[in-house]
Amino acid sequence: MGDQWAGQGFGWQNMFVAPEEDPRDESSLYGEREVLAGYLRAQRQTLELKCGGLTPEQLALRSVPPSELSLLGLVRHMAAVEHSWFQRVMQGDEGPRPFRPNGRHSEEFSFAVPADDDVEAVFGEWRRQCEAADAFIGRTDLDVRGQGDVELREVIVHMIEEYARHNGHADLLRECIDGRRGQ
């Protein structure tokens, strides 16, 4: 089967990981909370995979002009979205959102800086927001309602959708950067 794809531009050599090395696993999830949390975790892992092994300059590259979209900008955006839904909407936190110093949505994308310190800070904030969301999900009934009468389970499903949509963007960005293709 190895020669079947020769010359066709497809194969594990340009994918993110071989199937046996893929950290995402939804096969042993049981119960609503575990399924929802597991699929959210897999979508987060997908974003992290798509950013893996790139330089700060590559992460901040806007690969599809005139769009301001970059992989680093997507991670910044997802940190702000995690904070917005789980901290603001579900828990009433009125503090500032990450990566929005002036409160504008576009700031998450337009201020991505290609420096090691910035990359570490962005991924650190994103991971903190994910951990805070996971802690909240773990201790809160899925029927709990936040602002706008939205249930926690609805927020989790929305976050899975949000990551899935942006992971599609990340696929295209990554392929433009180094030819690696989605998974």
Automatic annotation (TrEMBL):
Pfam family of the protein (one): MST
Domain of life the protein comes from: Bacteria
Name assigned to this protein: DinB family protein
Origin species: Actinoplanes flavus
